[in-house]
Amino acid sequence: MTNSSLLFTSEGLSETLTTEGSADTTTSHSHQVKPHSDNIVLWFLLNIISSIFILFTNSLTIIAVAVTPALRTQPNMYIVSLASADILTGFYLLLEAAWTIPLSGDFFDTHREVCLLKYSVLYLSLLASMMTVISITVDKLLFLGTPFLHRRVITREITLVIIVISWIISFLYASTVHFVDIFDESVGCQIYNVLNQDFVFFGNTAPVALVIIVTAVCYLEIIRIVAHQRRKIRAVNQLTEESNGSYQKSVRLFLTVIGVFVLCWCPFVVCGFVSYICCKDRNMHKALLHLALLNSGLNFFIYALKNKEFKVAFRRLLFDKCKPQESLNI
To answer: DSSP per residue over 143-193, as a string?
Structure first.
């Protein structure tokens, strides 16, 4: 074989090896970028359905309060705040669904700011929800424990200030995602690839656990007050019997909301602690997070079942569009 033939053969072999190596690298990179390709259809449908469900129910809740004068009460200001936070949860699930689609998912995997936006929305919705739940719990505890003080101090203006401060803190908290990320486009836009495990635990699991503990303690104290001091509260309360009964109903409504919140988030918190301490099961963590996020769509049914005013308002919005002149008698 001549030297030119050897050279041609060698170059051809080198080119072939280079091409194969590039293909292997591309394949490996694609595999790293898309670790979520398994069960892609299932997760896409689950995220889309959950998102539509959450966005619809919470939007309907806000509209019901906006168009029904009887629902524009001070306690329901917290309901609007909680529904707004839950709407953000619905948007996060939409972004998560977009990430599962190969083409749009590549965009998330290769663009840092777009990827971090997804988790900023998640953390904003989580903290805003938790801050609202704590505000509701403390508000009801103050009402039952010190009704005079509550009526004099906790005005609509003060309630609005509390809500605004809660949202400001939530925005600041969510913005920290952009300063502590470890984003690497070679491994994709999954939470453990974007944020280190310590931040995920102390910035996600631990705060939820703290909220559950605080609300559980307040919940037990509220039950104790209701059980042992009901007569005393009625004796010193300057509210009319009718308005007092209305507020007592709102207490039961909010306690149900808080109880469902705790039940939905407890499995996720337990899994988070176990994953941080010993074994890590990211699929289980993801599934339980999704279960916890579904809590954002359940409050609608609690309002409809536990509150007559909401039930009538929802019925009018959904089924009585043809009767705009009919007044809502509550």
So the answer is: HHH-HHHHHHH--HHHHHHHHHHHHHHHHHHHHGGGTSB---TTT-S-HHH
HSE at residue 309, side-chain half, CA atoms within 13 A, is 18
Which residue type sits at 125? S
Longest CA–CA separation in the chain, Å: 111
pTM (two decimals): 0.75
What contacts 104, CB < 8 A, 6 or more positions away?
Answer: 98
Which residue matches tokens 């936006």? 117
Give one word for 4, left, alpha or beta, with left for phi > 0 and alpha for psi -120 to 50.
alpha
Q: How many CA atoms lie within 13 A of 167 on its CB side?
A: 14
For residue 229, what pLDDT band results from cuts at 50, 70 and 90?
A: low
Number of Cβ within 10 Å of residue 195's Cβ equals 22
DSSP string, 33-82: H-TT-TTHHHHHHHHHHHHHHHHHHHHHHHHHHHH-GGG--HHHHHHHHH
252: pLDDT strictly greater than 80: no
Query: What percent of the chain is modeled with pLDDT above 70?
Result: 76
End-to-end alpha carbon distance in the chain: 100
